[in-house]
Batch of 4 targets.
Target 1
Amino acid sequence: MSAHTRSIARNHWLTLVASLTLCASASPALAQGRGHGGSKGLPPGQAKKMVTPAQAVVVSRDVLVMHGFEVVRVETIKTGQVIYYRRGNNGRGRGLGPVEKMVVRPSGSTVIVESAPKNVLLDIRVRLGL
């Protein structure tokens, strides 16, 4: 076999390998995770986070203090918990505000916070991930 014939055979071999590689890479990808397995759960943003009333009370106390309220006491009544709080002094020398209450009660796998100021309720929900 001459050198010229070997180079032609090598060129044909390289062309064959290149075309097979190109065909293999152009075929559709089959395992994209979108078929046969059924649904794997809820779509993003639809899942409910499980929160216990004890976690909700700890977060509520922190948020109330952060907003300038003073937590007076926490009582357990039936399945819910009542947080008694009042407005702090805020450095104005006008004394403390009247005692108010908010209720944290379980509802399925999450909790419901009732009778809380809107800005406090918003921060509680954000911190709990609800």
Note: The chain has three helices and four strands.
Target 2
Amino acid sequence: MNERSFNFWQVEITLKQSITNLRKGEKTAKGLLLAARNLFVLYGYSAVSMREIALKLGINAGAIYNHFPSKQEILFRLLEDHMLDLLRQWKVLDYENKELSDQLILKKFVNFHINFHINKSKEVFLSYMELRSLDNKNFMKISNLRDEYESILQNILFSGRRNGNLSFGDPQITSKAILGMLSSLSHWYHQKGRLGEEEIKTIYWNLILNSVRNDWKTNV
């Protein structure tokens, strides 16, 4: 083996080690986020320390700072990841909406929101209960993402009203009322409850449709 081939071999080994370490680091960071999420839900953000988060994952207390500089950063990441995931998943579905009626698009949004929030109940709880724990800079970033999501519903409503298929008063109040009703589901829904997921979707959809529909166009 000549010197040049030996150097290439060393570089390849170093690169593989770096990739392995990166993957381990990413896995640890995800584990810390999950541990923090569970602790924040159980005890509240202010009552949980960085040390407790690290111990929950079984790592040295000081090692957590290799991944997150502060508890505030962990909370921000949890709330940001939640909102970005919400927006990303709707964007995928939105590509299929071009040929649908306004009422069907609204129904699709309602069902999407319910599905997402039932499956992400802990993230939803944090996004509402611990939003106040963010510092001003992070609060504004999350608020902007929430506004972006709310604007999706407002655009659906505007389009329906413009086409004569939906009828409502103030669009901002209407969208906030709909989102508030939908998001509250995560606080009380239980898989073993009296009503199944599909039954709940039907009830919620009828409530929302009756609040925004034009009486002569209700074939949904």
Note: The two ends are 73 Å apart (CA to CA).
Target 3
Amino acid sequence: MAEISRLILIACICCCLHPFPAFACRYNVREVGFVDLGIEQYHLYGFVDKNTPAEIASSFEQISYAALLESNIQFEIVDVNQQRDHLAIKYLDSLQIRTFPSAVLVSPDGQSLAVPVTKPGSAARDFEQTLRSAIDNVLSSPKRNEILQQVSKAYGVVLLIEAADQQQNKKAKEAARSAIEQVAGQMEYLPKPIAHPPVLVEVSQESLSQEKVLLWSLGLETENSKLKTQNSEPHAVVLYGRARWVGPIFKGEQITQDNLTAVLFVIGEDCECDLDHRWLQGTMLPARWDENLQAQAAESLGFDPENPTIKTEISWIIGRGTSSYPGVPLGYQELVVEPGPASTSDERPATSDERRGTRDEGRVTRDERRWTFHAVVIIAGATVLITAIGLYIVFRAARRKS
């Protein structure tokens, strides 16, 4: 009985001395963004019909599954004659697809994109090569590869998609660089250190034709290698973690230092209780996340985001914030960083000291909440400890009398 009492006392003391891991979040938004819980997958549907040769249908399925293993895209083969009630059949009508085999890429929010897996007049023996090339285009592009390399080791990426107007491009670029510089200057005050500041990645007008899938995944349509109906304005979006899209797309006059900074600072926050947890996992770009990127990310983070224990913990953290998948990245209908208008000539822009003061005030408020929470935990732990010691003393005194 005495040994059991000692064990109870030791357990109580351990609980009191180690309250923080149990109650405080030990991850920041960037770290959470590297964990893939499989809740926002893209789907590639391969369509065949009764006239599709069996060897073509088999190759379609085997090649696609193998090629997509290290990606966030799930493949499914659909026979349009035998599976007429399949949910993906509707994409054939909306995209006016009438020949098979064919393929459609569908994003988590329901956008669809026809993926050409055959060439007009090509022989059946050329199908495999055409299919492999099509899947490679779905999984990678020059700018997506650059984004993946940067987010795996840096704070995040500001993606700037240039317009035809060079003056607007210049203005947007200056705003992005100023936002990155501001965040870099505040990184020493982050709840957890991040080694490398945000990076600017630019998509020029000349490279738009190579980035059709990237632009589509962001909800931007292209026509003749230009942004459809919107090519007169540059666009900017913030990416982090496993190439996740966070915040709204800013365009034209909305691309300001303040707007970009507001989104960038979210990435460095810890996932404490007062942060809306829908910010923790934005929709990923469709891409291949191979072993090299995984190793690079793990080295940057100091832990393996594919570890099952880590995934379970992150899943629990995200589950506290919302019970439903937000659809488009971060549920923009509710989670919107309101774009502010460009400053007029009569408005004096805030100085760097004023911006830093505002940032520090916000940080002090978060620190106050955090330390208040920790103080409550310590008091509760101390109460348990004192009670345990009192019971132990009473127990020992009772034993001596007996």
Note: Residues 7-24, 322-367 have pLDDT under 50 and may be disordered.
Target 4
Amino acid sequence: MSDLPTPLNRPAFHITPAETPSLRSLLTIAVSVVVVAGLYFGRSVLIPITLAMLLSFLLAPLVNLLRRMHLGRVPSVLLAVLLALTVILALGPHNRAARWVSGFAWESR
């Protein structure tokens, strides 16, 4: 056995065993699962609310402009919403938003 190379003078590596997850990490995972599940099951309510908020952010400058023209709050909002619906529906029937808005007309009959 003299023909085998001699080991280098290196310290032996010590591999630590895996630790059990702490309560904090398990709680983080549980809260994440609950939040994702809540968003998944609440999407039928949350998507229209999110779209309404985005549309309000988009229309706010137009409403402010109309109010500065002394039109009043309610007429300004109605005119801005009417203009937005006109633009959405003018994009054509191939637009997903236009089909979504026109679906309300069929549901109300």
Note: The radius of gyration is 31 Å.
